[in-house]
Amino acid sequence: MKHLDEKERESEVRRQAFEPPFGSNKVQLSVREWIAAGALVIGICIFIPWIWQRIEPFQPGPDYRMPYELSNDYWLYSRYCGLARSQDKVLVIGDSVVWGEYVAPQDTLTHHLNALTNSDRFVNLGVDGIHPAAMPGLIAYYGRAIRGRTVILHFNPLWMSSKRHDLQTDREFQFNHPKLVPQFAPWIPCYRESYANRIGIVIERYLPFRAWTNHLAITYFENTNLTTWARENPYSNPLTRITLDLPEPSPELRHRPVPWTETVGSPVDFEWVEPASSIQWRSFQQTVRTLRARDNNVFVVLGPFNEYMIKEQQIEPYNAIKQGIDVWLDEQRIPHYTPPKLPSDLYADASHPLGKGYALIAEQILQDDSFRRFLDGEKRQVNAKNHDRPLSAMPHES
């Protein structure tokens, strides 16, 4: 017994040596206190992004487009959608063709639509580098404010010009906006992100706080998280980086605005993907369904693709794709328009017009009968809504 008592005492001494006694620096919470603490953290995560919108000035003008360096700032894009919706604008959504890859903000499609209609009703919600496979994620999770509005949705046939553009290749390669594509289903074979990161991306879509911290990283910390930035800048105060001055769209051109004949020079042998097997086309269809399910009036603009760049033997498959798209849009009763091909010298590459090309496309769209009927129907709906509103809610004339 004495031998056992000595062993127990030795064991107790060793345990106390490695386990400090309970003191004031150790806090133990009850179940109720844990619930209260969790609720407090959740509340902070919800309200900080909401409060930040009232702290950080953001007043986009008529020719505003998302600055190129903020192309991945989906939190700001969501905020931009909310402002555009509150102002009852016509929302023009698409990839770099809508954004204006080869032109300044004052020479985009929306600028020319506004100039020809003597208004500022058309808003550029294009995102540089976006593609149809990423568009459903952008609209579903960051374009929630787009409801009950008039939407012009652009589709670029470039995304069906090869299996690589269509994301069908098994070989991994980097493409734009991977956080917006489906992470699990449907499966994208060339996308090789880890499962842990995929889960994190999905969670981020439903947590405004995560999107907001990404906004801070992209806008103020050179697109790096705070921990990495602090490690690389140990003697700098991170608070001085948050200036509340958002970058403005740059008037500087990203490329030389020259015709495609001076850069590409000769036609290309495109390997067109059939709509039935196309990931990009199915994704575009999903975007249309999402927008219509939210009571938006949708008008689709297809192209115009630079047909001068297509080798002669590939013209027939291209026309078959256009016809298949037209058939689906007709079946879904979605008004649409395919502008005729522009003069060759108004294309910068396979799908991007130069400034004069945008001006011509805007003129063609506004003269199209289906588009004019579409806008007339939109005007009647707006007038009907205003007629049904109580007099106290109607704007007063000065």
Keywords:
Rossmann fold, 398 residues, 43% helix, 5% strand, 5 strands, 13 helices
Protein structure class: mainly alpha
Shape: globular
- What is the C-alpha radius of gyration, as a whole number of Å? 27 Å
Strand order in the largest sheet: 2-1-3-4-5
Care to count the β-strands?
5
Count of separate DSSP helical elements: 13
Strand content range: 5-15%
Low-confidence stretches: 386-398
Report the top-level CATH class. Answer: Alpha Beta
Report the span from N to C terminus. Answer: 101 Å
**What number of domains?**
1
* Order of H and E elements: HHHEHHEHEHHHHEHEHH
> What's the CATH H-level superfamily name?
SGNH hydrolase
CATH topology: Rossmann fold
Strand count, sense and closure of the main sheet? Answer: 5 strands, parallel
Indicate the CATH architecture: 3-Layer(aba) Sandwich
In round numbers, the mean pLDDT is 86
Kindly describe this structure.
The protein is mainly alpha-helical. It has one domain: SGNH hydrolase (Rossmann fold), CATH 3.40.50.1110. The chain has helices at 2-18, 31-55, 74-86, 96-99, 109-117, 135-142, 195-206, 208-220, 226-232, 279-293, 315-331, 355-367, 369-388; strands at 90-93, 122-124, 150-155, 297-302, 336-337. It has a five-stranded parallel β-sheet, sandwiched between helices. Strand 4 (297-302), helix 11 (315-331) and strand 5 form a beta-alpha-beta unit. Mean pLDDT is 86; it is low at 386-398.
